[in-house]
Amino acid sequence: MSSQSSLQNADETNNEFSHGLDNGKLDLEKKHYESFLSSQVLYNQSIEKLQNRKSELARLETELQEAQKESAQWIEKSQQHTHQIPLKEQQADRLRDTANKAGIEKEQLRELRKNTRNDNPFLIGLFYVLAGLLFITGDLIISKDIVAYAFGFKGFEAWSFAGGLAALSLLLKPAYERLIEHYYQEGKYKRYIYFKMVLLFFALTTMAVLGLYRYDAFRVDKMKAFLNNEATYLQSGAGTNSPTLIAKLDSLRRQRIQLNEELLNDPWGAWSFVLTGILFAVSGAVCLGVGTPIVQTYWKRWVQIPIRIGQMKRLEKRTQKQLEKVETQLSQEKAQKAISENHLAMFSKPEELQSEIKTIRAEIRDLTDQQGLYDVERRVSQYNDGYVRGKVEQRTEQRPNGHVDIVNANGQAVHS
After folding, report:
1. CA-closest candidate to residue 87, choices 365, 330, 270
2. What does the alpha-carbon distance between residue 391 and residue 409 come to, in Å, rounded to a whole number?
3. 136-156: per-residue pLDDT in tens?
4. Model's pTM, two decimal places?
């Protein structure tokens, strides 16, 4: 290409030299052809520049399409990561808050377990609870076998009635706790002492009444045993059909019936049943009211709080694992977003390319206008040069001796 261009330039130079030589021989003004040559060079340069700018425009348009496509892909990826990052951050905040709450509750439970104490041993509380259950069971048995039978209740009705009476201990337990035990735990012993004194007097009175009734029952039982032995002796020592024996046995039978009636109508027996029922109900409530808080304290310290601490430990551990996973995903999303932004920064921005394309298109328009002007100047100069040459040749005259008179544009004859 360089050799061909050199040859072409050499040919053009030779043509221009020949043309100039001819113009010189004809004594033509050189400005027209000089103007033509100048316009021709500018015209050729404008063609070359225009082709270069068009090639550059085509390249930029192709690059713009690729950049727009590439930019759209990376923008979409960046937007996806931008959308995921706040979601992952919110999820991480929730997990972090859950883990913190679990840790705080775990420490609070440990502190609560440390402060959950009772001055009384666990066995004391357990014994009180068992004693309360025994009182309730005793009241249930008495109500079932005696009171329910006296009212004529049987089966389910008897058990329901007995259970209701035995449940009085459970009904009285909150009253005891609120009225007596609560003040005792606060260090106010006056009400507790009065209650204990009344309960002790009531218990001793009940035991005394029971003792008297038991003595009467014991006395009646011994007398009945004596009468039974005497009847057995009489039956073994005489004939069964003897009127005297029958009369004595009938007398012994009436004595036994009388003893049973005396025992049945004994006022100590009636009072013993009444006072025993009241004592069992109150004692059951007191034992449960004293023993239940003790057992509950140790149950809470040994069972409930450790179970809850274990739950919080597992929750905190599980949440920490989930948090680590989410934080890893969050870091990946941020890294991918940074990569997308770096790719967008590395590639040519469509806005810049569009600005360059706009500039080149303006240059192409200017070059096209300049090319038109150069073409006009080139054509006009070429026309003027030809016009002057034609005028000169028209005035040329043939002399007889073979000489030619050449008249220049000023009308002066040039001999050749």
Report:
1. 330
2. 7
3. 888 788 777 766 666 666 777
4. 0.54
